[in-house]
Amino acid sequence: MAFEKLIEEFQQRTAEVLAMGGAEKLAKRKAEGHLNARERIDYLLDKDSFIESGRFARSNRPEVKAKTPADGKVAGFGKINGREVALVSNDFTVMGASSAVINMKKIKHVKQIACKRGMPLVLLGESSGARMPDRMGAAGRAIIAQDPTEYQRLRESPWCSALLGQCYGSSTWYSAMSDFVVMRKGAIMAIASPNVTSIAIGKSISAEELGGWKILTGVSGLADMAVDTDEQAIDAIKKFLSYMPGHINEPPPEAPVPPGSDEASKKILDILPESRNQVYDARKIIAAIADKGSTFELKERYGKSLATVLARLDGKSVGFIANNPMFKGGALDADACQKVTSFMVLCDSFNIPLVFLVDVPGFLIGLEGELRGMPGKVINWMNAMTLVTVPKITVMMRKNYGQAFINMAGGKNADEIACWPTADLGFMDPAVSVNVLYGVKFEDDPERFKKLKAEVERDTSAWGLAELYEAQTVLDPRDTREYLIRTLQVHRLRLKNGVGEHLLRNWPTSY
Question: Contact, 150 vs 501, CB < 8 A?
Answer without folding.
Answer: no
